[in-house]
Amino acid sequence: MADLLTAEAVRDELGGLTGWSGDGTGISRTVELTSFPAAIAVVDRVAGTAEELDHHPDIDIRWRTLTFRCVTHSAGGVTHRDVNLARRIDEIIRGAQ
C-alpha cells in the first residue's frame, strides 16, 4: 500500500502544481477549456495516462469545465501516486491550451 502524505507534505506538493488545491483527503483542480470537444479530448488523454499509471482520477465534466480529483482510495488519502497523476494532468492541460 502507498504511504499517505502528511498535511504539510500535501501543501508542499501543491505548491509545485498548477491550480490544484486540497488536503490530505484529496486534491483537485478545475479547468475550463475552449469548447466541449476540447474538454473531452483532454479527458481522453487523461484516461490514457491513468491507464498507463494504473491510477485513476475522479472526473466531473460540465460542458467545457473539467474538475479532476485525485486520492488513493485504498490508502485512505493522498499519496505520491496522486501527485504524480496531477503533474501528468497538468502537462495534458498545458498542451491543450
Automatic annotation (TrEMBL):
Question: Does the UniProt entry include the keyword Lyase?
Answer: yes
Which family, according to UniProt? Belongs to the pterin-4-alpha-carbinolamine dehydratase family.
Keywords of this protein's UniProt record, alphabetized?
Lyase
The organism named in the record is Micromonospora vulcania
Q: Name one Pfam family in it.
A: Pterin_4a
Q: Which domain of life is it from?
A: Bacteria
Tell me, what is one Gene Ontology molecular-function annotation carried by this entry? 4-alpha-hydroxytetrahydrobiopterin dehydratase activity
Q: What is the lineage of its organism?
A: Bacteria, Bacillati, Actinomycetota, Actinomycetes, Micromonosporales
Record field: catalytic activity: (4aS,6R)-4a-hydroxy-L-erythro-5,6,7,8-tetrahydrobiopterin = (6R)-L-erythro-6,7-dihydrobiopterin + H2O
Q: What is its EC number?
A: 4.2.1.96
Q: Which InterPro entries match?
A: PCD_sf, Pterin_deHydtase
What is the uppermost EC class here? lyase
Supply the name of the protein.
Putative pterin-4-alpha-carbinolamine dehydratase
What PANTHER family would the database entry show? PTERIN-4-ALPHA-CARBINOLAMINE DEHYDRATASE
